[in-house]
Specification:
Layout (H helix, E strand, L loop, with lengths): L1 E6 L5 H8 L4 H10 L2 E5 L2 E6 L1 H18 L6 H8 L20 E4 L2 E4 L3 H12 L2 E5 L6 H14 L5 E6 L15 H20 L1 H9 L3 E5 L11 E5 L7 H8 L7 E6 L13 H8 L6 E5 L9 H12 L1
Parallel strand pairs: 6-10, 6-11, 7-8, 7-9, 9-10
Antiparallel strand pairs: 1-3, 2-3, 4-5
């Protein structure tokens, strides 16, 4: 077993605190993932492992230190770095499209894409009227779409945010659920609400909903509408039928941005029904001015185990 001691080129306590993480959680994740032994004291890091492990750890530490300079390093970013999915750096030779970083300003602060796929997704949303974000859970599809919607409404680029989701679990028979329309749909839109609350605050979201600036709508109630000057997000789109997807996309009016998100591996439709999202990806693939952003398990920014779970199910 080889051993290498690295002296970090900084003694700034704030940078080092961000670099190591709370209770050294960032370093522990690196050690656990690469299966090397890492001991740290001050700005000195000792690595034990074979040569390949030591080189991999050092490469990750260099990138982590770069991110720590801006105080933006956390477990999610450490995970992205470990997957070779940071600033277009990867162990393969696949061509990566270079895009300008899109920075979204919200109440929470500046939100930007962390992986190349997230950066491309944000770039597509601000440069296209109709966008598809497709990939596994935890890759930021919905969160980043909501961030773009929040910035658009705060900058008065649109007049409304409209949140849409198919209520497949209720068989679209929402009349059997108690409460008004918003109460019936709320359980299905909770992930969208959570992101809005984080970026705008609960009180502001509730005031905007009272004024109908933020509107929630089940997909089944969208027929016949024309959506002008709005930012529209269709979440969990894999659970739309072909007819519903066509109906939804043809609601697009002037001054409107549409973002469709979904995971084609988690379709809850009845057996024999074709997913509207899968169908749209095939039918619209050659339509100009529609963007398609695809995410992979390496883009997951949730707990490190989420990627392993996704990969395990793909293998099965």
């Amino acid at each position: 077993m080889n051993k290498k001691v690295i002296t970090l080129p900084t003694s700034n306590n704030d940078v080092l605190t961000n670099f190591f993480g709370n209770h050294d959680e960032n370093i522990k994740l690196v050690a656990q993932t690469i299966k090397a032994t890492i001991n740290a004291r001050g700005n000195t890091v000792q690595i034990q492992g074979d040569e390949a492990q030591i080189n991999q750890v050092q490469r990750c530490l260099d990138l982590m230190l770069e991110e720590a300079q801006s105080q933006s390093l956390d477990l999610a970013m450490t995970h992205i770095i470990l997957q070779g999915n940071y600033k277009n750096l990867s162990d393969n030779d696949e061509e990566v499209i270079e895009v300008e970083d899109v920075k979204i300003q919200t109440r929470k602060g500046v939100i930007t894409g962390r992986s190349p796929n997230q950066k491309l997704y944000l770039h597509n949303i601000v440069t296209h009227d109709v966008n598809f974000g497709v990939g596994p859970a935890g890759t930021g599809k919905t969160y980043l779409a909501v961030a773009c919607a929040v910035e658009a409404i705060l900058n008065q680029e649109v007049q409304r945010i409209i949140l849409v989701r198919p209520a497949v679990e209720a068989g679209e028979r929402l009349g059997f659920l108690p409460g008004d329309l918003s109460d019936k749909v709320d359980p299905y839109l909770r992930p969208l609400y959570d992101a809005l609350y984080e970026m705008l605050g609960v009180e502001k979201v509730e005031r905007m909903m009272e004024k109908n600036i933020i509107e929630v709508a089940p997909l089944a109630f969208m027929r016949g509408r024309t959506l002008n000057n709005a930012f529209v997000i269709l979440d969990e789109a894999q659970n739309t039928t072909v007819e519903q997807m066509k109906m939804f996309l043809t609601r697009t009016g002037f001054g409107t941005t549409v973002v469709v998100t979904g995971d084609v591996t988690q379709v809850d439709l009845r057996k024999g029904e074709t997913s509207g999202l899968k169908h749209a990806l095939e039918v619209l693939s050659n339509v100009r001015d529609i963007s398609f952003s695809h995410f992979e398990s390496k883009d997951v920014v949730r707990h490190n185990l989420v990627q392993k779970i996704i990969d395990a199910y793909e293998k099965a």
